[in-house]
Amino acid sequence: MILDDYRTLLTLNSAELYNDLYNDFDSYYFTTTMLIEKGLYVEFRRVLSKASTLVEQILRAEYPQTLAYFLEVFIYLI
Asked: Which helix (H) or strand (E) holds 42?
């Protein structure tokens, strides 16, 4: 895990990585559960795709709790 002087999480390329990624990922997956319950499959796929694009960035952050966080979010889909 790489942090700058202000304790902001950095990627390997020294780009800033904010905790908003986790919040956005969580929101997208929660939204997918609501869309699938309503039978809105096209919107479900779009939101799921948006969430999936965040996975690489979250993994690059190397945050120690990432696996536990992903498992918690995926439980929404069950």
From this structure: helix 41-60
Containing structural domain, residue 35: 18-77
pLDDT digit string, tens, across residues 2-36: 666 766 666 666 666 666 788 888 889 889 989 99
17 three-class SS = strand
4 part of a folded domain? no
Claim: this prediction has a pTM higher than 0.70: no
- For the chain, strand residue ranges (E) read 2-3, 9-10, 16-17
Alpha-carbon distance of 52 to 6, in angstroms, equals 28
In a domain, 6, yes or no: no
Q: Judge whether 23 lies within some domain.
A: yes
